[in-house]
Amino acid sequence: MALLEMRNICKRFNTVIALDKVDFNLDQGEVVSLLGENGAGKTTLMKVLYGMVKPDEGEICFSGNRVTIDKPSAAIKLGIYMVHQHFMLMPAMTVVENIIVGEETGKGILLDKKEALDRVQSLIEEYNFDIDANAKVAGLSVGQCQRVELLKALYREADILILDEPTAVLTPTEVEELFAAVRKLKIAGKSIVIITHKLKETMAIADRVCVLRNGCMVEEDILPEHTCAAELSRLMVGRLVDLEVRHPAQQIGSVVLSANDISINYGQGNCLKHITLNVRAGEILGIAGVEGNGQSLLLRTLTGLESGEFIHIKLDGVEMKCSPKVFLSSGIGHIPEDRTTMGIVGDMSIKDNLILGYHRQKSFSLYGLRRDREIKSNAIQLVGKNAIKTDSIDTPVKSLSGGNQQKVMLARTFSQPLRALIIAQPTRGVDVGAMEYIHNQILSLRDQGVAILLVSADLDEVCTLSDRIAVIYEGEIVRECLPGELSKVELGLYMTGSSGKSAEK
Amino acid sequence: MDNIFAVILLATLRMATPLILTTTGAVFSVRAGVSEIGCEGMMIAGAFFGVLGSYLSGNAWVGVLAGVFFGMLFALLHGVLHVIFKVNQTISGMSVNLLAAAIAPLLIKLIWHTNSLTGNVASISSLEQSFLKEIPLIGGFLSQLNLFFYLAILFAVSGWFYIFKTKSGLRMRTVGENPLAASTLGINVIAYKLTGTAICGVLSGLGGVYLSLGQLSQYVDGMTAGRGYMAMVINTFGHYNPIGAIVGSLFFGFFDALQIIFQSSNIPSQFLMMLPYLVTLLVVVFGLKNTRQPAGVGKHHDA
Amino acid sequence: MGTQFNKLKSNPMIRKTGFSCFALFLSLLCGAVIIGYSGYSPINIYKVIFVDTLSSKSGIMLALSQATPLMFTGMAFAIAYKVKIINLGEEGQLHCGAMAAAIVGAYIPNLPHLPHVFMALVAGAVAGGMIGLLTGVLKIHFGASEIITSLLLNSIIVYITSYLCNGPLKPLDSSSPQTPFINESARLTRLVPKTQLTTAILIAIAIAVLLHLLMSKLTLGYEMKAVGLNLNAANVHGISIARIYLFTMILSSAIAGLCGSTLVLGVNGRYVEDISLNYGFAGISVAALASYEPLAVPITAIIFGILKAGAFTVDRTTNIPVELVSVVQAFVVVFIAAPKLTEFILGIFNNIPGMKQKTGGC
Questions:
Q1: Residue pair B194/B79 in contact by the 8 Å Cβ criterion
Q2: Domain presence at residue B301
Q3: What phi and psi values does residue C345 have, to the nearest 5 degrees?
Q4: Most buried among A54, B161, B200, C136, by the most CB within 10 A?
Q5: Model confidence over A253-277: pLDDT tens digits?
Q6: What is the DSSP string of A145-187?
Q7: Which domains does chain A have, with CATH numbers?
Q8: Is there a contact between A344 and C233 if contact means CB atoms under 8 Å apart?
């Protein structure tokens, strides 16, 4: 009998099926890797186990007994502890304080710092974690922060640890150190579930692999020694039926936008390493990669939001001053990756959002006065042309559906004369119908001679649209290729760091 | 004791007393993650309702309790508006300041029928007649201080002890640093935030009571004179630590005291009275470079 | 019929007006408690305040002249809040402007009427604007919170002006702290003889219109709106946040300074220490009730002006002090937060399980 059994778990968010009759088992002392793409349902499944999400159907059994887990403290009581993808730490406080708060040592109201230190210290030594217990968390590396999160679980004597994307922001060395810790935990009798999309690590550490795809458990009980990365990749990504028709570029011109040897380091994995990119007129360069590998920083750099001595961006051979105003007015369009925080002003009308960034152009502003008539006709025209569903151009844009909001952002930029376009996650949160429309728009823009840089976490999208693909991993371009040169599975390997770091350009 | 050193020291300690109390209150509020901008209003509430309580009961200590109670009440208004109804904390804090500043003159008119002063009421005198006088050497000096000064030190030290040495204090600090993380650890974020705000109200109220019942025996409109805002700066200056609050309050209290010492000199009184604010402004602009308040101030546990 | 009502409910202007009316109503209710405590009937007192004030010419004049400074301070707060700046330094900016106007008005001789008035008004606006510039620079270059700095500057400025009118600028023959009377040429014209109503109210309304035009017709106003509603998106799309902050802070404080000018150049004729009856902070209530719309500020200012004028009458004839108005104003600020309360309550109703349709199995 398994230690933990999850049976027939179903969960639905509005119209989206997140989990579809999923079964999941866990034995004592085993390390299970829960594998899947972004949105496959793996985090949702574990959140159900941890009491953060209530399943619509299904049950959880512990050592044969049915249990109800309705909040994290109930899970913690059962000995389950989840280490979240984003750390839940207090940087200004020490390691010891971060670990013990909520379950403090000491008699009565007094905090016994010495006892706390001793207990934490002994855990650190037992698992060989190499952390200074008295250091402030703010000064720790990402790998060390993660170990503090593990210590929180160990301090609470958890038997089942759920690690959500633990290696997402670790360097290879830190990953090794994490694995050493996991192996130690296993020997101590703990059971560990690792939620991940990284194949290399799965192969290295898991006893057993379960693959989720689109909310369904595709395969359970895969033993790493009986499979390979390629097979797992196939299971994760799905059948390679090429439903997507490609429209290759007909005429590629000279280099329009170029970034030369850009390196930025903000610490904690937020960095770019020697990025050199060239985008040509009439070409789509697609940046493929799992989110969190430097894409945001790359986007900021290419849209003028990062300035510095060593950042050199050239448009048609001329170096640009790094400011979003200059970039926009020079014809570099920008579709940001996060619509609500960066792309639109929710409380402003559709009409006003359609000129954001271009509001100082002569067509919309004369001697500082708004040209109401032109702004209005611009809005009417764009709303009609792009089939944006709304009653009026004066309604605030936040009341539109996600797909229509996206259309507003795109309509705004696409209606401008562009030399280059930096576009990120164009079809995120958008239904299939709008997706096709948006793709067509991007392609037609390309055919007009615009140089396009596309960043997307959706590998299918990148492969369909791009004329050239570059894979970004941990802030570096690790592979450039033409579409079709590598299969999606192989690309997936590069995206997850499984294919070595040699940059074959 | 006539020497100038003692005079200055005495004046400084007297001026520092309300600052120590209010700033310690501010420490609690910020450590729990709530802005302390309402301190001025809490002080006004304490000062006025202290006098009202003393007036109605004839007993100064009843007045003290009344002042403290109303300080807490006003603080809870700020707390509930911000923590429960998610109002911008500057607005909820300022509305407390405005309300207190408006209610006091209104009630003065209604009850005493005068414009901006109340009549004299029973107050808390200094400890001149107490046992302190017997202490050799410094006894004479110590007994000239008001009981409130000793209370202020006591509360500051107790506050320091609570925040840094107890389990509950650790939890409060966690709430102030990262309410989301705190909630994942099972800590009741709302309870801690409201408690921190309430304690701020109690201590700021007490600071206000000292101004009206401790230093004088009446309430004068505007007597808090922005000390609540000064406490905010001292709080930052003292790194959100009650011991730092004591040190900072002594520093600012010194400048506050200068106006009494130089009263009879040629310097225009306005410049002397302005000095504490000027010093505070300079500290805000140049002196607060490296202090960072708890990372979760103004944040909620579910967003 | 139901859908018509829903459509009305969702019109933003109607919603805001509704909330403001509700907040005002609650605040007056709190005032009624105080009136009741003093032994009077709230209905009678409010009748005196509102009805009687409006039915006499002198009442209306008093209401309008009490409303005028509130229009300025209300607009100053409202325009700053459009970019999410909370200007708490209006009191100091006002005093600074008042002193500047008093000096220009009194010490510059032999000027014709219009230029003199104009210069004195502008002097006040500039003086106030400089304080705003200082506050803005301290925020942008030193990271100093404008909330604290503007509050501290309030105190500092008031002490400086107090020194000036108690000392160097005090006329030799006067016994109370003040500056010399301004020349007749600098005085604002009274609109209605023998009342306190001057052309200041026209200036205020003109500014309301100008601010409205700024926000609706100028590209700069568009940028300000974007900064106030979504700082990040504005930055990404090339709007300079520092520039907008600085401009708005200067504009807001200049209006407050202008308020000071009109107080000196109007009925007072000179600077006195109590030139401002807390107009600076009252401006927060006025702006809040107007939902921070510059064009609506004159209306809410008049409402509070009527309240104030009526309260003066009530103060004379009954036991109820004029400070009642300040209390009602303070409650307005508290209750304008009430929309969040109401929304919150509505939100609870939407989330009750069982009220939602079951989506069935997988």
A1: yes
A2: no
A3: -65, -40
A4: B200
A5: 889 999 988 888 887 667 898 999 9
A6: HHHHHHHHHHHTT-SEEEEESTTTT--HHHHHHHHHHHHHHHH
A7: 28-52+70-237 (3.40.50.300), 255-495 (3.40.50.300)
A8: yes
The CATH class for the domain spanning C12-339 reads: mainly alpha
Task: Tell whether B226 is covered by a domain.
Answer: yes
Q: Does C337 contact chain B (CB < 8 Å)?
A: yes
Cα–Cα distance, B208 to B220 (Å, whole number): 12
Residues of chain C with pLDDT under 70: 1-10, 337-362
Q: Where are the domains of chain C?
A: 12-339
Contact B167 A104 (CB under 8 A): yes
The verdict on residue B209 lying in a domain is yes
Beta-carbon separation of C361 and A341 below 8 A: no
Q: Could you tell me the residue range of the domain that residue B128 belongs to?
A: 4-287
What the block records as the tokens of B240 is 């959100």
Cβ-nearest to A89 among B165, B167, B181: B181
* C360 or B91, higher pLDDT: B91
Q: What are phi and psi of A193, to 5 degrees?
A: -110, 125
Of C181, C179, C180, C201, give the one whose Cα is nearest residue C190: C201
C-alpha atoms less than 13 angstroms from C-alpha of B224 in its C-beta half-sphere: 29
The nearest alpha carbon in chain C to B103 belongs to C327
Q: What is the CATH number of the domain that holds B164?
A: 1.10.3470
Judge: C142–B280 Cβ closer than 8 Å, yes or no: no
Transcribe B71-95 into DSSP letters.
HHHHHHHHHIIIIIT---HHHHHHH
DSSP E strands, A27-113: 31-35, 57-62, 65-67, 80-83
Confidence of residue A241 (pLDDT cuts 50, 70, 90): very low
In Å, how far is B105's CA from the nearest CA of chain C?
7
Residue C26 contacts B, CB cutoff 8 Å: no
Query: What CA–CA distance (Å, rounded) separates A69 from C190?
Result: 75
Residues of A in contact with C234 (CB under 8 A): 345
Q: Please give, rounded to a whole number of angstroms, the shortest distance from the CA of C230 to a CA of chain A.
A: 6
> What pTM was estimated for this model as a whole?
0.82
- Look at residue C360 in the predicted model and tell me its pLDDT: 31
Give the count of domains, chain B.
Answer: 1
Residue pair A478/A471 in contact (Cβ under 8 Å)? The answer is yes
- Whether B299 is in a domain gets the answer no
Q: Do β-strands A208-213 and A31-35 pair in parallel, antiparallel, or remain unpaired?
A: parallel
Q: Do A305 and C235 touch (CB under 8 A)?
A: yes
In chain C, which residues have their Cβ closer than 8 Å to the Cβ of A216? none
Q: ∠ CA B27-B33-B35 to the nearest 5 degrees?
A: 70
On whether the CB atoms of residues B233 and B283 are closer than 8 A, the answer is yes
Write down the pLDDT at residue A414.
Answer: 92
The number of C-alpha atoms within 13 Å of B25 and in the hemisphere containing its C-beta is: 37
Closest by Cα among C277, C291, C244, C281 to C16: C291
Residues from B contacting A (CB-CB < 8 Å) are 165-171, 173-174, 177-178, 180-182, 184-187, 292, 294-295
Q: Give the pLDDT mean for B110-121.
A: 76
Chain B residues inside the 8 Å CB shell of A97: 170, 173-174
Compare B79 and C342 and report the one with higher pLDDT.
B79
108-137 of B, contacting C, C-beta below 8 A? 109-110, 113
A504 pLDDT band (50/70/90 cuts)? very low
- Residue A369 is predicted with a pLDDT of 93
Whether residue B273 has pLDDT greater than 60: yes
Q: What mean pLDDT comes out for the span A91-101? A: 92
